[in-house]
């Protein structure tokens, strides 16, 4: 009897918390973009290979992006089982409209995962019914699930009440938050030393990469190619070798070379990872020359170089690849 009462209490608190949470985080989503039951089922069926590493990816017409870049919530109960909750925002890939939230529960002993699709406020009633059914019929069968999920949603709701997140007026995710990308013509270095446009690179293909820890170049495999269509502003930095001389030691200094990407795309600097928008003339980047990483300093940074209609990003096994002969990082 006591167990049943606790289960009912957790169910009610979780349902109420979710409703408030969805109103706060998704209130700006247009009614026409509300999640349907079919969409909720499709999202629930998405399998994530590596929950700790896969924080941003496309699948079946949807984009999953780790909520506020949060790591997993981790709980260790007296039964010795570690339980985790991962949160992802859900966007429609076509127009980046925010549809809802995906909460994934993982049992550390069995490694079983349970997915809960939390619809946006304007979602179809049947999508909400699907979520409520999951809370009741899935949550009741897994000890510890309801308490961990309730805690996480309550904690995030409290955070929203004290601050809140930003979205565009039409309910879509802001482009500067959403994209970590390059223009279609950005040259990606291949293992044989040649280059091809990033738009032509395919998942499973081998490309040249860089190991940040060992400071050596290597070959890596592309695990995913992200493409986004719209209007995207590129930022750029002009680079010159610190020696002010070309690789063949000519007396005349090299003309600066340009690296372009969206503002948030990360690159490797002498002081670590930095987004393009934060780079200044005090920063040093690395370019591959004759198989070695050569330090280049930024001689000029431009907030806007051009606007393009399509942008691309690669996910790789090593987390770093080479664009325009410069070491850049995955999102």
TrEMBL record:
InterPro entries: Hint_dom_N, Hint_dom_sf, Intein_N. CDD domains: Hint. GO terms for biological process: intein-mediated protein splicing. Residues 1-27 form the signal peptide. Residues 179-289 form the Hint domain. SUPFAM superfamilies: Hedgehog/intein (Hint) domain. Keywords: Signal. SMART domains: HintN. It comes from the Bacteria. This is Hint domain-containing protein.
């Amino acid at each position: 009897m006591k167990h049943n009462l606790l289960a009912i209490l957790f169910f009610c608190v979780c349902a109420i918390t979710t409703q408030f949470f969805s109103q706060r985080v998704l209130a700006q989503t247009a009614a026409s973009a509300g999640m349907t039951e079919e969409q909720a089922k499709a999202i629930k069926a998405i399998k994530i290979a590596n929950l700790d590493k896969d924080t941003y990816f496309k699948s079946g017409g949807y984009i999953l992006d780790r909520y506020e870049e949060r790591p997993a919530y981790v709980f260790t109960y007296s039964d010795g089982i570690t339980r985790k909750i991962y949160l992802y925002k859900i966007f429609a890939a076509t127009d980046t409209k925010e549809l809802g939230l995906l909460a994934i529960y993982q049992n550390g002993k069995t490694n079983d995962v349970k997915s809960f699709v939390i619809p946006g406020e304007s979602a179809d009633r049947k999508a909400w019914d699907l979520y409520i059914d999951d809370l009741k019929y899935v949550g009741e069968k897994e000890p510890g699930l309801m308490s961990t999920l309730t805690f996480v949603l309550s904690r995030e709701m409290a955070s929203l009440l004290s601050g809140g997140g930003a979205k565009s007026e039409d309910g879509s995710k802001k482009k500067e938050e959403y994209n970590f990308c390059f223009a279609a013509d950005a040259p990606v270095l291949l293992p044989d030393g040649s280059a091809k446009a990033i738009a032509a690179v395919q998942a499973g293909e081998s490309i040249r990469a860089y190991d940040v820890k060992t400071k050596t170049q290597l070959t890596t495999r592309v695990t995913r190619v992200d493409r986004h269509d719209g209007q995207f502003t590129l930022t750029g930095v002009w680079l010159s070798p610190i020696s002010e001389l070309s690789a063949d030691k000519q007396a005349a200094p090299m003309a600066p070379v340009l690296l372009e990407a969206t503002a948030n795309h990360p690159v490797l600097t002498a002081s670590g990872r930095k987004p393009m928008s934060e780079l200044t003339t005090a920063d040093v980047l690395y370019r591959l020359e004759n198989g070695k990483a050569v330090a280049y300093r930024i001689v000029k940074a431009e907030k806007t170089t051009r606007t393009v209609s399509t942008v691309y990003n690669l996910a790789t096994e090593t987390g770093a690849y080479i664009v325009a002969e410069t070491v850049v990082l995955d999102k």
